Amino acid sequence: MAGIKTGKEMSIIEARHVVKRFGQFTAVDDVSFAVERGEFFALLGPNGAGKTSTIRMIYGFSPLTAGRMEIFGLDIGSEWRKIRSRLGVCQQENTLDPDLTVAQNLFIYSRYFEMDKAVARRRAEELLEFFALTGKRGAKVMELSGGLAKRLQLARALMAEPELLILDEPTTGLDPQSRHQVWDRLFELKKRGLSMVLTTHYMDEAENLCDRLLIMDHGRIIAEGRPQDLIIAHAAESVIEIDGPSAELRNYVKQHAVEHDDLGERLIIYAEPRGELESQVREKFCVESCRFRAGNLEDVFLRLTGRGLRE
Amino acid sequence: MSRVHLTDISLRFRHIWFRNLITYHRIWKVNFLVPLLEPAFYILAFGLGFSGLVGRVSYAGMQLEYTRFMAPALVATACMWNSFFETTYTSFVRMYYQKTFDGILATPVSVEEIIIAEIVWAASKAMAAVAVMLAVLIPIGYANFPGALLCIPLAFMGGLAFASIGMFFTGIVPTIDMFNLPIFLFITPMFLFSGTFFPVSGIPDWAGICSLAFPLYHMVELTRFLCIGAIESQPAFNLAYLLLFTMIFGYLALGAMKRRLIK
After folding, report:
1. Hey, of A56, A59, A95, A107, which one would you mutate to test binding to chain B, going by the most B CBs within 10 A of its CB?
2. Digit-coded pLDDT (tens) for A45-57
3. Whose CB among A88, A236, B70, B239 lies 3.0–4.6 Å from A270's, allowing a Cys bridge?
4. Which domain holds residue A246?
């Protein structure tokens, strides 16, 4: 019964108590979340946090060990083919077909979706234009730079006009120009109302693009919310970084029970913007090296997942 | 969870077959040179160098010139090499280095369909190679016309058998160099002891019985039957064996590849 909605708009993704184990290792440990239609949602976490495993369960690449995953209200285990025909995936690794040209990559991909051939040709032209690849139509995939290859992978993911786009680290390894190129396109797609799920470990990427996100570590969700809300809840709107903090400053911070992180060579103070604390610190302790800046998602991320080296 | 789901197999596999055809299209000229020249080389070499030593071969109650005896076996071995190499080295490259299958697994295509497509594609390639070979063997009188033309559909059938076991090895070898092992332990003895270069009836019984297990033996018997009308076994039995071999190793290949691809 198309068009009929029951009460609340149905979630586009609904993960309930999802578990993924590889032998003894638990990659995803009882994770539940929902993504609404039209939302740009991000999964953040250090390497090995379980982001890619989660993403792979969304598009039915990896079977779930336990729990339930529903996409478009359909179960991924039994309705994977229907689900996959309605979503686009831009995988982390380059899975473009090196034996084919740029245009052939798009066309052959459309065959897997059994798209009408004339429609697919038109769609391929539109996407080549949208991603500024028209001039490269006949090029071999091997000859493309990292940025161009990623744009082609995005174009390919959009071939079948998906309702949901899944992006697994779409800008990892790209130069700043290419990253911004990709971001511009994603912004444009967001404006058109496409639902997207992104994994990344670039905090600025998540902060700029996403409506809502969750932070994972060791296979579990450790925080969830809108970027700005998370910054206020787990860091602060305003941050002061002081290099080589004096003993006096340390005392002051302890006495006044100021929210802070002591990194030895550097002290980070989490404050209210233009508040009393900020001006106190500025007057008393900021003789030389103090940096006043807005709190960001990186602060949240590091506070929640720790600053130690991993692996 | 990586159990084989036969219900996940639909005709969608043909799109991957088509993908392989497109990429093959770029290199077909080079690829066709091999089946075109291979029989010529063999017949020349064996005809010039060997027939003086061997004389005639008695096979199925006939006295055959050595090259006439051996030529149909070349059709069968070409079928084997073409399909086996396609689902071992070539599929491994697509799977492991090019990540082509990972890309396809984000579309409404199942793992089972990918594997079936690879096997069917390899058999198609074997069929094309055999067709080219016949274009050489028929005019020079080494294969009967038009009976030998049936070797073309037969090559597809045999191709499925060799491609299936090749795909099974691709599902279990840790690295691409390890294909040496099945080639050395399985393909090479099969190549030599399947009635290709000498009749199985001439070797000790125990060795002859071992040969019966090789799919190539059955292929050679059938191609010889179609090319020169001589056979020492039952064509229906040969066909049945190839079919059974394909079904068993096709299923094992699906299981092994699924375990390998699905994480």
Report:
1. A95
2. 988 899 999 999 9
3. A236
4. 236-295
